[in-house]
Amino acid sequence: MASPRPIISPSVLASNFGDLSNEIKRMMQHGAEWVHMDVMDGHFVPNITMGPPVLASVYKTVPGVFMDCHMMVSDPAKWVQDVADAGGKSFTFHIEALAEPEKAHDLVIQIHKAGMRAAVAISPDTPSSAISDLLGHEVDMLLVMTVVPGRGGQKFIEACVPKVAELRQRFPTKDIQVDGGVGPGTVGKCACAGSNVIVAGTALFGAEDPAAVMVTMKESVESSKAGWAKM
Question: Per-residue confidence at 230, pLDDT binned at 50, 70, 90?
Fold first, then answer.
C-alpha cells in the first residue's frame, strides 16, 4: 500500500499581496509544487482576502501554478464553478460551512465534475469524527486546521495533532494536510501524526532560504512514514 508523498503548499496569506504573482513564482522556483490560496468571504470567517478574480489573475501570470484553494466561505457550493474557471486545481470546503453536512457527497461530486480535486477541512473545535468514513474515501484530501481559520500568524494548536493521527489511521493512502502555525519547529509533530501536505506561511515567505526549509519539511514527512503503518 503506497503512502502519500510529501507536498509543500506555501500559504500566500503570508506573502506580499502587492506583488503576489512574483511571490508565488519565487516559492515555485524554490521547490513548491502547490500554492495555498486562502479565500475568505467575511461571513464564514470575519476576514476578507481574495476571490476568483485574484485567482484568475494568478493563473494567467504564473505558468504551471497549482492553486490549492482553501475556501473559508459560507455556501461553498456556489463558488465551485467560479474557482474552477479561475484556474483552481484543488477545492477545500469546511464541513462546518455546510447547512447539511450529511449532503457533503453532493458537493464532492460537483467539485470533481468541475475538474478539481476535492478536500474537506475541519476547524480546531471540530472532531475528526465529523469526517465520516464515506466522505473521507470520496475526497482527495483531508485538512486539519491547527489554528482558528480566518487570519494568519497564529500560534500552532498542538491539541489538534491527534486528529491527524486518527484520520491517518482510517485513511492510510489519503493526502492529509495541516494548516496553521506550521514551521520547522512544529512540522515534525504533524508529520509523525500522519500529515504529508504541509501548509506554511511565514516560515516560507519570511525565510532567508525557503528552499532549505521546504527540503527540511519534506524530509520530516519522509522520515515519519514508517511510523504511520504502526498506528
Answer: confident
Sheet of 35-40: strand order equals 7-10, 197-200, 175-179, 141-145, 117-122, 88-94, 67-72, 35-40
Between CA 36 and CA 30 the distance in angstroms is 15
Query: How far, rounded to the nearest angstrom, does the alpha carbon of residue 7 sit from its chain's CA centroid?
Result: 10
**Averaged pLDDT, 98-121:** 96
Which residues belong to the active site? 38, 179
3-state DSSP assignment of residue 175:
strand
Angle at 124 between CA 1 and CA 6, to 5 degrees: 30
CB 55 within 8 A of CB 34: no
pLDDT digit string, tens, across residues 54-70:
999 999 999 999 999 99
Phi, psi of 185 (to 5 degrees): -85, -15
The bridge status of strand 175-179 relative to strand 35-40 is: unpaired
- C-alpha 102/C-alpha 98 separation (Å) is 9
Whole-prediction pTM value?
A: 0.96
Helix (H) or strand (E) holding 83: helix 80-85
Residue that the C-alpha cell 466522505 belongs to: 135
Determine the Cα–Cα distance for residues 201 and 169; give it in Å rounded to an integer: 27
Name residues whose C-beta falls within 8 Å of residue 197's C-beta, 6 or more positions apart in sequence. Answer: 4, 6, 7, 9, 34, 141, 175, 176, 177, 178
Cβ-contact 108, 91 below 8 angstroms:
no
